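tmp note - Acetoin utilization protein AcuC
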Amino acid sequence: MTGHARLVYDPDLTAYDFGPHHPLAPIRVRLTVALATELGLVDTTSSTSPASPGGGSGAEANGRVLQVPAPSATDELLALVHDPAYLEAVKRAGEHPEWADAEFGLGSSDNPTFAGMHEAAAHVAGASVEAARIVWSGEAQHAVNVAGGLHHAMPASASGFCVYNDPAVAIRWLLDAGCPRVAYLDLDVHHGDGVQEIFWDDPRVLTISVHESPRTLFPYVSGYPTEIGGPNAEGFAVNLALPAGTGDAGWLRAFHAVVPHLLEAFEPTVLVSQHGCDSHRADPLAHLALSVDGQRAAALAVHDLAHRMCEGRWVATGGGGYALVEVVPRTWSHLLAIAGGRPLSPGTPTPPGWRDLVARECHRPAPTAMTDGEDPTYADWDTGYDPADELDRAVRATRQAVFPCHGLDPHL
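out:
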Protein backbone atom coordinates (compact mmCIF):
# COMPACT_ATOMS: atom_id res chain seq x y z
CA MET A 1 0.00 0.00 0.00
CA THR A 2 1.11 3.52 -0.70
CA GLY A 3 1.30 6.21 1.93
CA HIS A 4 1.05 9.06 -0.58
CA ALA A 5 -2.18 10.66 0.65
CA ARG A 6 -3.72 14.02 1.53
CA LEU A 7 -6.56 15.07 3.79
CA VAL A 8 -8.09 18.26 2.39
CA TYR A 9 -9.43 19.92 5.50
CA ASP A 10 -9.61 23.05 7.56
CA PRO A 11 -11.90 23.77 10.52
CA ASP A 12 -14.04 26.22 8.56
CA LEU A 13 -15.53 23.29 6.63
CA THR A 14 -17.75 22.73 9.66
CA ALA A 15 -19.56 26.00 8.80
CA TYR A 16 -21.77 23.81 6.60
CA ASP A 17 -24.36 23.68 9.36
CA PHE A 18 -28.15 23.48 9.06
CA GLY A 19 -28.65 24.15 12.75
CA PRO A 20 -28.62 22.41 16.14
CA HIS A 21 -31.56 20.07 15.47
CA HIS A 22 -30.57 18.92 11.98
CA PRO A 23 -29.23 15.34 11.58
CA LEU A 24 -26.23 16.45 9.49
CA ALA A 25 -24.31 17.82 12.47
CA PRO A 26 -20.87 19.19 11.61
CA ILE A 27 -19.40 17.86 14.85
CA ARG A 28 -19.14 14.46 13.16
CA VAL A 29 -16.47 15.90 10.85
CA ARG A 30 -14.62 17.57 13.70
CA LEU A 31 -14.68 14.41 15.80
CA THR A 32 -13.38 12.41 12.85
CA VAL A 33 -10.38 14.64 12.28
CA ALA A 34 -9.72 14.78 16.03
CA LEU A 35 -9.80 10.99 16.32
CA ALA A 36 -7.60 10.44 13.27
CA THR A 37 -5.11 13.00 14.56
CA GLU A 38 -5.04 11.46 18.06
CA LEU A 39 -4.43 8.06 16.47
CA GLY A 40 -1.38 9.47 14.69
CA LEU A 41 -2.89 9.10 11.22
CA VAL A 42 -2.78 12.77 10.22
CA ASP A 43 0.15 15.14 9.93
CA THR A 44 -1.12 18.71 10.36
CA THR A 45 2.17 20.26 9.22
CA SER A 46 1.32 22.59 6.34
CA SER A 47 2.89 21.74 3.01
CA THR A 48 2.90 23.88 -0.12
CA SER A 49 5.34 21.91 -2.25
CA PRO A 50 4.20 18.84 -4.16
CA ALA A 51 5.67 15.48 -3.26
CA SER A 52 7.94 13.82 -5.77
CA PRO A 53 6.37 10.76 -7.39
CA GLY A 54 8.90 8.39 -5.91
CA GLY A 55 9.48 10.07 -2.59
CA GLY A 56 6.89 12.06 -0.72
CA SER A 57 6.92 13.98 2.50
CA GLY A 58 8.00 12.66 5.85
CA ALA A 59 4.33 12.19 6.68
CA GLU A 60 3.93 9.92 3.68
CA ALA A 61 7.02 7.94 4.53
CA ASN A 62 5.52 7.25 7.95
CA GLY A 63 2.16 6.24 6.51
CA ARG A 64 0.47 9.41 7.70
CA VAL A 65 -1.96 11.52 5.71
CA LEU A 66 -0.78 15.08 5.20
CA GLN A 67 -3.47 17.66 6.00
CA VAL A 68 -3.65 20.48 3.45
CA PRO A 69 -5.93 23.54 3.30
CA ALA A 70 -9.34 23.40 1.64
CA PRO A 71 -9.99 26.17 -0.90
CA SER A 72 -13.46 27.37 -1.82
CA ALA A 73 -15.00 26.68 -5.22
CA THR A 74 -15.51 29.67 -7.46
CA ASP A 75 -18.82 30.33 -9.17
CA GLU A 76 -17.16 29.21 -12.39
CA LEU A 77 -16.34 25.83 -10.86
CA LEU A 78 -19.80 25.37 -9.39
CA ALA A 79 -21.34 26.27 -12.74
CA LEU A 80 -19.70 23.19 -14.24
CA VAL A 81 -22.62 21.35 -12.63
CA HIS A 82 -25.12 23.88 -11.24
CA ASP A 83 -27.40 26.36 -13.02
CA PRO A 84 -26.43 30.03 -12.53
CA ALA A 85 -29.97 30.86 -11.35
CA TYR A 86 -29.62 28.25 -8.62
CA LEU A 87 -26.28 29.67 -7.49
CA GLU A 88 -27.91 33.08 -7.16
CA ALA A 89 -30.77 31.57 -5.16
CA VAL A 90 -28.36 29.91 -2.73
CA LYS A 91 -26.50 33.20 -2.28
CA ARG A 92 -29.78 35.01 -1.65
CA ALA A 93 -30.79 32.39 0.92
CA GLY A 94 -27.49 32.79 2.73
CA GLU A 95 -27.96 36.54 2.90
CA HIS A 96 -31.59 36.26 4.01
CA PRO A 97 -31.92 32.98 5.95
CA GLU A 98 -35.63 33.56 6.53
CA TRP A 99 -36.15 33.27 2.76
CA ALA A 100 -37.35 30.00 1.23
CA ASP A 101 -37.94 28.90 -2.35
CA ALA A 102 -39.49 25.52 -3.04
CA GLU A 103 -38.49 25.73 -6.69
CA PHE A 104 -34.85 25.48 -5.65
CA GLY A 105 -35.42 23.12 -2.71
CA LEU A 106 -34.34 25.78 -0.22
CA GLY A 107 -36.02 26.32 3.12
CA SER A 108 -37.41 22.81 3.59
CA SER A 109 -36.92 20.72 6.74
CA ASP A 110 -34.20 18.75 4.93
CA ASN A 111 -32.50 21.84 3.54
CA PRO A 112 -33.18 24.80 5.82
CA THR A 113 -31.48 28.02 4.86
CA PHE A 114 -28.71 29.47 7.02
CA ALA A 115 -26.44 32.49 7.00
CA GLY A 116 -23.46 32.03 4.71
CA MET A 117 -24.99 28.96 3.02
CA HIS A 118 -23.33 29.62 -0.35
CA GLU A 119 -19.89 30.21 1.15
CA ALA A 120 -20.08 27.09 3.34
CA ALA A 121 -21.28 24.84 0.51
CA ALA A 122 -18.74 26.28 -1.93
CA HIS A 123 -16.00 25.52 0.59
CA VAL A 124 -17.03 21.85 0.72
CA ALA A 125 -17.10 21.69 -3.08
CA GLY A 126 -13.74 23.39 -3.33
CA ALA A 127 -12.23 20.79 -1.00
CA SER A 128 -13.37 17.95 -3.26
CA VAL A 129 -12.07 19.71 -6.38
CA GLU A 130 -8.75 20.23 -4.60
CA ALA A 131 -8.65 16.51 -3.77
CA ALA A 132 -9.25 15.75 -7.45
CA ARG A 133 -6.54 18.22 -8.50
CA ILE A 134 -4.04 16.68 -6.10
CA VAL A 135 -4.64 13.20 -7.50
CA TRP A 136 -4.78 14.22 -11.17
CA SER A 137 -1.60 16.31 -10.88
CA GLY A 138 0.27 13.43 -9.29
CA GLU A 139 1.01 15.29 -6.06
CA ALA A 140 -0.45 12.30 -4.22
CA GLN A 141 -2.13 9.06 -5.22
CA HIS A 142 -4.97 9.40 -2.73
CA ALA A 143 -6.84 12.46 -1.44
CA VAL A 144 -9.77 12.58 0.98
CA ASN A 145 -12.40 15.20 1.83
CA VAL A 146 -14.36 13.81 4.79
CA ALA A 147 -16.64 16.88 4.78
CA GLY A 148 -17.73 16.13 1.21
CA GLY A 149 -19.95 13.57 -0.43
CA LEU A 150 -23.06 15.76 -0.81
CA HIS A 151 -24.38 13.53 -3.55
CA HIS A 152 -28.11 14.43 -3.63
CA ALA A 153 -27.80 18.02 -4.87
CA MET A 154 -29.26 18.48 -8.34
CA PRO A 155 -28.18 21.01 -10.98
CA ALA A 156 -30.96 23.43 -10.00
CA SER A 157 -32.06 22.37 -6.52
CA ALA A 158 -30.93 21.33 -3.07
CA SER A 159 -31.95 17.89 -1.90
CA GLY A 160 -31.34 15.53 0.99
CA PHE A 161 -29.11 17.84 3.09
CA CYS A 162 -27.02 18.69 0.00
CA VAL A 163 -26.68 22.18 -1.47
CA TYR A 164 -23.84 21.79 -4.00
CA ASN A 165 -22.90 18.40 -5.41
CA ASP A 166 -19.20 18.34 -4.61
CA PRO A 167 -18.47 14.85 -6.05
CA ALA A 168 -20.05 15.84 -9.35
CA VAL A 169 -18.15 19.14 -9.49
CA ALA A 170 -14.90 17.26 -8.83
CA ILE A 171 -15.69 14.68 -11.53
CA ARG A 172 -16.55 17.39 -14.07
CA TRP A 173 -13.29 19.15 -13.20
CA LEU A 174 -11.38 15.92 -13.85
CA LEU A 175 -13.06 15.46 -17.23
CA ASP A 176 -12.31 19.04 -18.23
CA ALA A 177 -8.70 18.58 -17.11
CA GLY A 178 -8.32 15.74 -19.60
CA CYS A 179 -9.17 12.65 -17.56
CA PRO A 180 -10.66 10.16 -20.07
CA ARG A 181 -12.80 8.07 -17.71
CA VAL A 182 -13.97 8.45 -14.12
CA ALA A 183 -15.65 5.75 -12.06
CA TYR A 184 -17.85 7.05 -9.26
CA LEU A 185 -18.55 4.55 -6.49
CA ASP A 186 -21.20 5.56 -3.93
CA LEU A 187 -21.38 3.52 -0.72
CA ASP A 188 -23.88 5.72 1.11
CA VAL A 189 -27.05 4.00 2.35
CA HIS A 190 -29.03 6.42 0.16
CA HIS A 191 -29.00 6.35 -3.62
CA GLY A 192 -26.46 8.71 -5.19
CA ASP A 193 -29.18 10.27 -7.28
CA GLY A 194 -27.66 13.69 -7.93
CA VAL A 195 -24.41 12.34 -9.36
CA GLN A 196 -26.33 9.80 -11.44
CA GLU A 197 -28.59 12.54 -12.82
CA ILE A 198 -25.71 14.82 -13.74
CA PHE A 199 -23.79 12.12 -15.67
CA TRP A 200 -26.83 10.14 -16.85
CA ASP A 201 -25.92 10.34 -20.54
CA ASP A 202 -22.13 10.62 -20.32
CA PRO A 203 -20.23 7.40 -21.14
CA ARG A 204 -17.02 8.88 -19.72
CA VAL A 205 -18.46 8.42 -16.21
CA LEU A 206 -19.53 5.12 -14.69
CA THR A 207 -21.71 5.72 -11.62
CA ILE A 208 -22.23 2.78 -9.25
CA SER A 209 -24.44 3.24 -6.19
CA VAL A 210 -24.70 0.56 -3.49
CA HIS A 211 -27.62 1.52 -1.29
CA GLU A 212 -30.72 0.44 0.58
CA SER A 213 -33.61 -0.23 -1.74
CA PRO A 214 -35.61 2.91 -2.54
CA ARG A 215 -38.71 0.88 -1.70
CA THR A 216 -37.87 1.58 1.95
CA LEU A 217 -35.64 4.68 1.96
CA PHE A 218 -35.14 8.18 0.55
CA PRO A 219 -35.10 9.22 -2.26
CA TYR A 220 -37.77 6.54 -2.96
CA VAL A 221 -38.17 7.50 -6.63
CA SER A 222 -34.71 6.50 -7.89
CA GLY A 223 -32.02 3.90 -7.37
CA TYR A 224 -33.70 0.90 -8.96
CA PRO A 225 -31.62 -1.58 -11.00
CA THR A 226 -33.58 -0.76 -14.16
CA GLU A 227 -32.02 2.74 -14.20
CA ILE A 228 -29.01 2.12 -16.44
CA GLY A 229 -28.20 5.47 -18.09
CA GLY A 230 -29.22 7.57 -21.07
CA PRO A 231 -29.29 6.57 -24.74
CA ASN A 232 -25.61 7.43 -25.19
CA ALA A 233 -24.53 5.71 -21.97
CA GLU A 234 -26.61 2.61 -21.43
CA GLY A 235 -25.06 0.53 -18.68
CA PHE A 236 -23.07 3.44 -17.26
CA ALA A 237 -25.52 4.07 -14.41
CA VAL A 238 -25.50 1.11 -12.03
CA ASN A 239 -27.78 0.64 -9.05
CA LEU A 240 -27.35 -2.10 -6.49
CA ALA A 241 -30.43 -1.75 -4.28
CA LEU A 242 -30.14 -3.94 -1.18
CA PRO A 243 -32.98 -5.10 1.05
CA ALA A 244 -33.47 -3.50 4.46
CA GLY A 245 -31.63 -5.44 7.14
CA THR A 246 -28.63 -6.34 4.97
CA GLY A 247 -25.52 -6.77 7.13
CA ASP A 248 -21.79 -7.09 6.52
CA ALA A 249 -21.84 -10.50 4.83
CA GLY A 250 -24.65 -9.66 2.42
CA TRP A 251 -23.37 -6.17 1.61
CA LEU A 252 -19.86 -7.40 0.86
CA ARG A 253 -21.20 -10.33 -1.18
CA ALA A 254 -23.23 -7.90 -3.29
CA PHE A 255 -20.37 -5.41 -3.69
CA HIS A 256 -17.89 -8.02 -4.86
CA ALA A 257 -20.42 -9.66 -7.18
CA VAL A 258 -20.91 -6.43 -9.14
CA VAL A 259 -18.36 -3.66 -8.62
CA PRO A 260 -14.97 -5.21 -9.55
CA HIS A 261 -16.34 -6.75 -12.76
CA LEU A 262 -17.76 -3.45 -13.99
CA LEU A 263 -14.65 -1.46 -13.10
CA GLU A 264 -12.47 -3.96 -14.91
CA ALA A 265 -14.63 -3.63 -18.02
CA PHE A 266 -14.79 0.18 -17.81
CA GLU A 267 -11.04 0.72 -17.18
CA PRO A 268 -11.34 3.99 -15.21
CA THR A 269 -8.49 6.46 -15.07
CA VAL A 270 -9.53 7.83 -11.65
CA LEU A 271 -11.77 6.34 -8.99
CA VAL A 272 -13.94 8.76 -7.01
CA SER A 273 -15.72 7.20 -4.02
CA GLN A 274 -18.32 8.39 -1.53
CA HIS A 275 -18.15 6.74 1.90
CA GLY A 276 -21.40 7.57 3.62
CA CYS A 277 -21.44 5.41 6.74
CA ASP A 278 -25.19 5.58 7.35
CA SER A 279 -25.34 1.92 6.32
CA HIS A 280 -24.35 1.11 9.92
CA ARG A 281 -26.84 -0.76 12.09
CA ALA A 282 -26.83 2.08 14.62
CA ASP A 283 -27.71 4.79 12.13
CA PRO A 284 -31.03 6.41 13.05
CA LEU A 285 -32.13 7.29 9.50
CA ALA A 286 -31.80 4.00 7.62
CA HIS A 287 -32.25 0.25 7.83
CA LEU A 288 -29.08 -1.57 6.79
CA ALA A 289 -27.07 -3.41 9.44
CA LEU A 290 -23.37 -3.05 8.71
CA SER A 291 -20.73 -2.77 11.42
CA VAL A 292 -17.70 -0.49 11.55
CA ASP A 293 -15.74 -3.62 10.68
CA GLY A 294 -17.80 -4.15 7.53
CA GLN A 295 -17.37 -0.52 6.53
CA ARG A 296 -13.63 -0.84 7.09
CA ALA A 297 -13.64 -3.89 4.79
CA ALA A 298 -15.46 -1.84 2.17
CA ALA A 299 -12.85 0.92 2.31
CA LEU A 300 -10.07 -1.67 1.98
CA ALA A 301 -11.81 -3.08 -1.09
CA VAL A 302 -12.12 0.37 -2.70
CA HIS A 303 -8.45 1.07 -2.04
CA ASP A 304 -7.51 -2.23 -3.63
CA LEU A 305 -9.66 -1.47 -6.68
CA ALA A 306 -8.04 1.94 -7.10
CA HIS A 307 -4.65 0.27 -7.32
CA ARG A 308 -5.82 -2.58 -9.54
CA MET A 309 -7.76 -0.37 -11.97
CA CYS A 310 -6.42 3.20 -11.74
CA GLU A 311 -2.76 2.97 -10.79
CA GLY A 312 -3.80 4.15 -7.34
CA ARG A 313 -5.57 7.36 -8.41
CA TRP A 314 -8.28 7.65 -5.75
CA VAL A 315 -10.40 10.59 -4.58
CA ALA A 316 -12.53 9.77 -1.51
CA THR A 317 -15.22 11.79 0.22
CA GLY A 318 -17.38 11.38 3.28
CA GLY A 319 -21.16 11.45 2.95
CA GLY A 320 -24.06 10.53 5.19
CA GLY A 321 -23.75 9.19 8.70
CA TYR A 322 -25.91 10.19 11.64
CA ALA A 323 -24.58 8.10 14.50
CA LEU A 324 -22.37 11.07 15.18
CA VAL A 325 -20.16 9.66 17.93
CA GLU A 326 -20.57 5.91 17.72
CA VAL A 327 -19.90 5.39 14.01
CA VAL A 328 -18.80 8.29 11.82
CA PRO A 329 -15.45 9.16 13.47
CA ARG A 330 -14.33 5.53 13.65
CA THR A 331 -15.37 4.58 10.11
CA TRP A 332 -13.81 7.64 8.50
CA SER A 333 -10.66 7.31 10.60
CA HIS A 334 -10.33 3.80 9.20
CA LEU A 335 -10.77 5.33 5.72
CA LEU A 336 -7.96 7.80 6.38
CA ALA A 337 -5.71 5.08 7.76
CA ILE A 338 -6.28 3.00 4.63
CA ALA A 339 -5.66 5.99 2.35
CA GLY A 340 -2.44 6.66 4.21
CA GLY A 341 -1.23 3.11 3.72
CA ARG A 342 -1.40 2.18 7.40
CA PRO A 343 -4.70 0.37 8.08
CA LEU A 344 -5.53 0.21 11.76
CA SER A 345 -6.04 -3.08 13.51
CA PRO A 346 -9.78 -3.25 14.27
CA GLY A 347 -9.02 -3.81 17.94
CA THR A 348 -7.05 -0.56 18.29
CA PRO A 349 -8.26 1.35 21.38
CA THR A 350 -9.62 4.84 20.87
CA PRO A 351 -7.27 7.39 22.45
CA PRO A 352 -8.16 8.68 25.95
CA GLY A 353 -7.81 12.28 24.76
CA TRP A 354 -10.45 11.73 22.10
CA ARG A 355 -12.80 10.04 24.57
CA ASP A 356 -12.40 13.05 26.86
CA LEU A 357 -13.27 15.36 23.94
CA VAL A 358 -16.45 13.37 23.26
CA ALA A 359 -17.44 13.53 26.92
CA ARG A 360 -16.94 17.31 27.00
CA GLU A 361 -18.58 18.09 23.68
CA CYS A 362 -21.32 15.47 23.50
CA HIS A 363 -21.92 14.55 27.15
CA ARG A 364 -21.92 10.82 26.49
CA PRO A 365 -19.36 8.03 26.46
CA ALA A 366 -17.28 7.37 23.38
CA PRO A 367 -16.52 3.96 21.88
CA THR A 368 -13.43 2.46 23.47
CA ALA A 369 -12.15 0.56 20.42
CA MET A 370 -12.07 0.93 16.65
CA THR A 371 -14.15 -2.21 16.17
CA ASP A 372 -17.69 -3.46 16.70
CA GLY A 373 -16.25 -6.92 17.27
CA GLU A 374 -17.55 -8.35 13.98
CA ASP A 375 -15.81 -10.57 11.45
CA PRO A 376 -16.83 -9.20 8.02
CA THR A 377 -16.50 -12.40 6.02
CA TYR A 378 -18.83 -13.21 3.16
CA ALA A 379 -19.64 -15.92 0.64
CA ASP A 380 -18.36 -15.06 -2.83
CA TRP A 381 -20.85 -14.97 -5.70
CA ASP A 382 -19.26 -18.01 -7.33
CA THR A 383 -20.45 -20.14 -4.41
CA GLY A 384 -23.86 -20.12 -6.09
CA TYR A 385 -27.01 -18.07 -6.58
CA ASP A 386 -29.97 -18.66 -4.25
CA PRO A 387 -33.22 -17.55 -5.92
CA ALA A 388 -35.02 -17.72 -2.57
CA ASP A 389 -32.68 -15.14 -1.04
CA GLU A 390 -33.80 -11.50 -1.37
CA LEU A 391 -30.22 -10.22 -1.43
CA ASP A 392 -29.21 -12.60 -4.19
CA ARG A 393 -32.24 -11.56 -6.21
CA ALA A 394 -31.20 -7.91 -5.85
CA VAL A 395 -27.68 -8.70 -7.05
CA ARG A 396 -28.98 -10.75 -9.97
CA ALA A 397 -31.30 -7.91 -11.02
CA THR A 398 -28.37 -5.48 -11.22
CA ARG A 399 -26.13 -7.91 -13.06
CA GLN A 400 -28.85 -8.68 -15.59
CA ALA A 401 -29.58 -4.99 -16.15
CA VAL A 402 -26.04 -3.76 -16.85
CA PHE A 403 -23.55 -6.58 -17.35
CA PRO A 404 -24.55 -7.24 -20.99
CA CYS A 405 -23.92 -3.55 -21.78
CA HIS A 406 -20.28 -4.14 -20.90
CA GLY A 407 -19.93 -7.52 -22.59
CA LEU A 408 -20.20 -9.40 -19.30
CA ASP A 409 -22.25 -12.53 -18.68
CA PRO A 410 -24.68 -11.85 -15.80
CA HIS A 411 -25.00 -15.56 -15.04
CA LEU A 412 -21.32 -16.20 -14.29
